[in-house]
Design brief:
58% of the residues lie in helices and 8% in strands. The chain has 17 helices and ten strands. A six-stranded mixed sheet has the order 6-7-8-4-9-10, with helices on both faces. α16 links the parallel β7 and β8. α1 packs antiparallel against α2, α4 crosses α13 and α5 packs across α13. The longest helix has 51 residues. The protein starts with a helix and ends in a 5-residue tail after the last helix.
């Protein structure tokens, strides 16, 4: 990325952020100096006024507003410093991605890993150094979960087209991404879908109208009579009588609803913490303008429903509910039925808005996933958007590369699977790059279906159901051998193909766990069934006997090997036509010290 305009832009922004943080800290230092100076002066004038009578007593009073102003400047500076630090960290993470220093620094998505998924582990989607870690710049857990779904769930081609249109529009919006990244007062503030779903799963707490009316009248009578008593408008004998009637009523209602209130309050505690980031994000979206169909629909829905304002109301009610935990108010709140009435009010809001809120959470998740893909696209301006076509299955790419490899080390290859039944048989020696080639096809397919740019000079593909058997392994816990795991994966791939799905199969060393004779028969049967169903794909092998199946179908033999054929360990990682004539197993064994 050396010399890249995006890298230069990010470096400039990083320097600006460093300068802004330094300026804030300088102002903080000045504010602290002023605060300490005025405080010392105030104490000195106070001593001189009240102890030594050297100055008038009102001198220190004149200084109080100055001290208060300095204190306010200093405390408000903490928020500025925190915001400047977060901006610096945000821009530093962008620089790290461009410089190839991002591995292990972000969200690796291990919580979304599924060993039984049809291509997740085969394409290294999750984990340290994974595609997800490179892409996951979403501010909230809600957005990261949707991004994981984008990468793993099969969608109709029309959905991929709409996603691509939205990502294309968001791609240049750097300032919007920064605003999204800095939502909330603290970086550690989160918004998790599980938090809201747990609240939604609870039965809505309800009370008859008569009960709510009695509670309101009783509490109002307590408060009003006490205030009138303090103002000497009502005699205290009458105030005490009113309290003796109303307080037992409130206590009885509180005891009756105590289990529901306690359960609801416990569920609301994390909601109260996490809802502010979500609300700020919705407000930012509602004030944005987009042209793409997907983004336009999201903003239009939020505006028509007044989403951010509605969330603001429930956020305030939760804050008011938490006021009961303050020492001075906890006792009176029990007699005033405060927690019960606030909880009923919150639950009444949920009863009216819960389904809307679910939709708003989905809208926010959708936007964050699209925005994360747009950020990736902006940081890789040379990566084009693929051409998504209806006719297929098809996958035709020029200069296709793996997005996790540095540009300097990434070797690119052309891929031509132009129509139903076309596939590659990739032969070659160990370490020649066959598995990486299969993953390159798969990962770029995943990016294309998610709506993102791809690592290629050009790529044209149809909607595809990716199925891979590259990193399938055994499981002692599940009592499953590698061979059985591979058979189950191929069975699922065949089921998709027979159901008419546009399958893209990627198979590394098919049936390697059995003898050569049985492998040849089984592999030919699998490939024949897949191609007859219209599937396209590639399979790699060391067994040259399997290359014969390409001659009997629409397959094509290609190979990967050494640079010039003289040194079996000097690989160029290029895909070449024909069947390999090289072998390097003995050379590798000798490198390992085996006496051959």
């Amino acid at each position: 990325m050396d010399g890249s305009p995006i890298l230069a832009e990010y470096q400039t922004k990083q320097q600006e952020a460093e300068g802004a943080l330094a300026a804030v800290r300088n102002r903080q230092g000045s504010a602290l100096t002023a605060l300490l100076g005025t405080t010392v002066l105030l104490l000195a004038l106070g001593w001189m006024a009240w102890k030594e009578k050297a100055v008038p007593a009102w001198y220190p009073i004149l200084l109080l507003p100055v001290v208060a102003y300095c204190a306010r400047r200093y405390t408000s500076g903490h928020a500025e410093e925190r915001a400047a630090t977060r901006l610096l960290d945000w821009r530093a993470s962008g620089l790290a991605r461009l410089n190839g220093e991002w591995v292990g620094q972000g969200y690796d998505g291990t919580e979304f890993d599924n060993a039984d998924h049809v291509f997740q582990r085969d394409l290294d989607l999750f984990g340290q150094g994974s595609l997800f870690e490179l892409l996951a710049t979403a501010r909230t857990s809600i957005g990261r979960r949707r991004l994981a779904e984008y990468l793993t769930q099969h969608v109709p081609l029309e959905e991929s087209v709409q996603r691509q249109e939205a990502v294309r529009e968001l791609r240049p919006m750097v300032e919007l991404r920064e605003k999204i990244g800095l939502l909330g007062r603290f970086e550690t503030q989160e918004s998790k879908r599980e938090t809201f779903d747990k609240w939604f799963a609870m039965p809505v707490m309800k009370a008859p109208v008569a009960v709510r009316l009695v509670a309101l009248v009783s509490t109002s009578a307590c408060v009003i009579s006490a205030l009138l008593g303090l103002a000497m408008v009502l005699p205290w004998s009458l105030v005490v009588l009113i309290l003796m009637i109303c307080v037992p009523v409130n206590c009885g209602l509180a005891l009756a609803y105590q289990p529901d209130v306690r359960r609801t309050v416990e569920a609301l505690q994390p909601v109260g913490v996490e809802i502010s980031v979500f609300r700020e994000g919705l407000a930012l979206l509602q004030h944005s303008e987009f042209q793409s169909a997907k983004l336009g629909a999201i903003v239009r829905t939020l505006r028509e429903a007044g989403a951010s304002g509605s969330i603001r109301r429930i956020e305030r009610m939760i804050v008011w509910l938490n006021e009961r935990n303050k020492d001075w108010f906890y006792g009176p709140s029990m007699f005033l039925l405060y927690a019960t009435q606030m909880t009923l009010a919150i639950e009444h809001w949920r009863g009216s808005h819960q389904e809307n809120m679910r939709a708003w959470l989905d809208d926010w998740a959708e936007f964050e996933a699209l925005n994360a893909l747009a950020g990736y696209g902006y940081e890789h301006p040379e990566d084009p958007f693929p051409e998504l076509v209806v006719d297929g299955p098809a996958f035709v790419g020029e200069d296709l590369g793996h997005p996790l490899l540095d540009e300097e080390t990434c070797v690119r290859n052309d891929v031509a699977l132009p129509g139903p039944g076309s596939f590659y048989v990739v032969s070659g020696s160990n370490m020649a790059g066959k598995s990486t080639f299969l993953r390159t096809i798969g990962v770029n397919s995943v990016l294309a279906m998610a709506g993102a740019p791809v690592r290629a000079r050009r790529l044209r593909l149809s909607g595809l159901r990716v199925c891979a058997s590259i990193s399938v392994g055994d499981s002692l816990l599940n009592r499953k051998s590698k061979f059985l795991a591979e058979v189950e994966r191929l069975k699922l791939t065949l089921e998709y193909a027979r159901a008419g799905e546009p399958v893209l199969f990627l198979i590394d060393e098919i049936f390697s766990g059995t003898n050569s004779h049985d492998r040849g028969i089984a592999a030919a049967a699998v490939v024949k069934t897949l191609t007859e169903c219209g599937a396209i794909g590639a399979l790699s092998t060391h067994d040259l006997a399997l290359t014969a199946m390409a001659d009997e179908t629409l397959g094509r033999n290609v190979h990967m090997g050494s640079r010039n054929g003289t040194d079996p360990m000097d690989f160029d990682y290029l895909v070449k036509p024909g069947i390999t004539k090289e072998s390097n197993a003995l050379a590798i064994a000798r490198m390992a010290g085996v006496p051959i």
